[in-house]
Amino acid sequence: MLKLLLFIVSFFLIGIIFLRLPEENVGLSSFATKSPVLGSPKSAQRFLNILTAFGILIYVAIAVKLNLTNV
Questions:
Q1: How many domains is the chain partitioned into structurally?
Q2: Per-residue pLDDT, 56
Q3: pLDDT by residue (tens digit) across 36-60?
Q4: For a designed S-S bond to 38, which of 3, 26, 31, 44 qualifies (C-beta 3.0 to 4.6 A apart)?
């Protein structure tokens, strides 16, 4: 069960990292003007930062738990 959750979180993090664009790129800006899904580019970037940090914490916690149970 934990391995499946770790697998899902891994792909979730890969997807989130692909959504994060460099500041010079106007990808989020142009997307935000066309669709109100993410809101303004600044709030979208903040939301993606929080989501990425939360995903990383979950990933590390599950990885530690799996390593401790396999010892």
A1: 1
A2: 93
A3: 555 666 777 788 889 899 999 999 9
A4: 44
